[in-house]
Amino acid sequence: MMRNKSLAFVGDSVGRNQMQSLICLLSQVEYPVDISPTLDFNFKRWKYTTYNFTLSTYWSPFLVKMEEADSDGPRHDGVFNIYLDEFDKNWASKINDFNYIILNSGYWFSRLPVCYEKNQLVGCWRCGLKNITQLPNYYGYKRVFKTALKAINNLENFKGTTFVRTFAPSHFEGGEWNLGGNCSRKMPFTSNEKTLEGLDLEFYKSQVEEFREAEKEGKRKGIIPLHHTSKWYHATNLPNHENSSTYHIEDMEIKIMDDETCDISIGEWIPNPDGPYYTNTTCWAIHEHQNCMKYGRPDTDFLKWRWKPKGCELPIFNPYQLLDMMRNKSLVFVGDSVGRNQMQSLICLLSRAVYPIDDSISPDENFKRWKYVDYNFTLATYWSPFLIRMNETDADGPTKTGLFNLYLDEADDKWATQIEEFDYVIINGGHWFTRCSVYYENNQIVGCRYCQLSNVTDLPSTYGYQRAIRTVLRTINNLENFKGITLVRTFAPSHFEGGEWNKGGNCVRERPFTSNETSLEGLHLELYTIQIEEFKAAEKEGKKKGKRFRLLDTTQAMLLRPDGHPSRYGHWPNENVVLYNDCVHWCLPGPIDSLSDFLLHMLKLEGRRSHEEKLQFMNQ
After folding, report:
1. What does DSSP say about strands 225-228 and 161-165: parallel, antiparallel, or unpaired?
2. 489 vs 550: CA distance, rounded Å
3. CB burial of residue 537 (10 Å; 0-12, 13-18, 19+)
4. What is the CB neighbour count within 10 angstroms for residue 50?
5. What is the Cα–Cα distance from 262 to 312, expressed in whole angstroms?
6. pTM listed for this prediction
7. Which of 31, 290, 320, 490 has the most CB atoms in a 10 Å sphere around its CB?
8. Which Gene Ontology terms cover its molecular function (predicted)?
9. What are the pLDDT digits (tens) for 520-571?
């Protein structure tokens, strides 16, 4: 996740303590090299060369400009002049190039600061100087954080993310730090044994208040600070804050319940009053035939559900997390129009953060490319409904849906010759294999699916589908220069009832199924089973070659959403369209948005999985 990125810890020695902890944890994989531009231990920089990851520390105990006025002072721990409205240039002038900043401070404010604002003395805390107003030490602390966060908000060239790491309380007992206090406990507190109180509580509240103000201002400027609340004490007496729309760092990990294994592919749809996260008026990427609100769909309850895996929580998609994880990377959707539907959903979800520019190299709408300039992230789609080489020999065919020649042992060059440059490839397909097709292997006809040609063996559509998926995954395994990750997105069932798609079938339900109301069966089950079998075989072979395959298993989730299709609300009533009642594609916004929840979860896990597989490959 930190490949080609940089992180800096800014603050006091507890921040440095945290950074040294991180270095020790990372030492399980690699030790960094010291690339510090100075010999000063307070300003260190390391580089993890394999990953081009830079880690730095800027020691700034007050975060603002300060000078030591007396190295001894009334309590023999110094007297410091701190300029509450002037940030410390030692860090503020250096962070523009960093992707992540972790800001912390606190302990030095228990020393004896003399506070200045606008270069005028405004007071001090226990400084022992005559005729100077005595201030509580959290007076300066609150203003310091205001100044530091304002400085970051005003940095025009800083495009990174700021983490405000909240105050970590000390635990002196029997006296203060310089008066015999000690910490000799050998067990953690339980949550009912300790609460946040006194000065620790004041410091924490000051941080949270200033964070929220900076966050609000930062959103107006396109800066996204992240805040992780303190977990060092159980703070039962903290003030309640309104729910924030910020994407918190807690969302970075999926939460797994005790004694249960988290399989995100199995679960139920539960109410989500916060949805949807965009509309057809805020996102331009919605295909006309999936723009259900535009064409008069009267109900909106289908927008108010989220996927809840059995035994764990799947966080709602966070656009900033995905964009940051995909910085300097690329992702392509390869497959049919349901894959394109998923990609357009992703663009709409990301639109809450930023829109891409069209970077397509062709005017063909089936081969589009977008770029998120601020993140150097490329998103593309290659439409290939059969995934293999094909040509249409009859636009009408026996069932008025065309007749296609499918070359089951040849991948479609339109995507197979292009994907080596991509970091992630999402493969999907299935719906087109129910059409009338003639099957070729080794350039010889081996059979067909309802082609009604004389002397040609009629084969089930699953015959062609299994060989096509096998060919696709084998092709990827044989691409020498492809170093990316292949995600096989499993089949999303259609929901025609009362007839097939071209024989009056429709989908008019307005609520999801529960898992005990329906099950995967018939052709849908066969297609899903084929995908799983071929995925496992390709994954096994890929491990021998250093290739990485992942299963994006969303079939169960989409099976339970008969209410999420456009039906007749993908066009005007009098329009002449091929698919009048569309129970294949998905309304936008709609249930397909949850597939991005799945995708982001898998990307979060990818760093660990890729490292483990790399070690296995090297040890073969």
Report:
1. parallel
2. 9
3. middle
4. 10
5. 6
6. 0.62
7. 290
8. O-acetyltransferase activity
9. 999 999 999 999 999 999 999 999 999 999 999 999 999 999 999 999 999 9
Tell me the DSSP string of 517-570.
T----HHHHHHHHHHHHHHHHHHHHHHHHT-EEEEE--HHHHHT-GGGS-BTTT
Left (φ > 0), alpha (ψ -120 to 50) or beta: where does 499 sit? left
Lookup: tokens for 527: 């297609």
Catalytic residues: 337, 582, 585
Residue spans of alpha helices (H) in 69-167: 89-92, 137-153
User: Structure tokens of 620?
Assistant: 């073969």
HSE-up of 384 (CA within 13 Å, CB side)? Answer: 28
On whether the CB atoms of residues 280 and 590 are closer than 8 A, the answer is: no
417: left (phi over 0), alpha (psi -120 to 50) or beta: alpha
Report pLDDT digits (tens) over 200-256. Answer: 888 888 888 888 888 888 877 654 444 433 333 222 232 333 333 333 333 444 444
| Six token digits for residue 363 | 């005017």
- What is the rounded distance in angstroms from the CA atom of residue 454 to the CA atom of residue 277? 54
Task: Decide: residue 552, CB within 10 A, 0-12 exposed, 13-18 middle, 19+ buried.
Answer: buried
Interatomic CA distance for residues 32 and 610, integer angstroms: 20
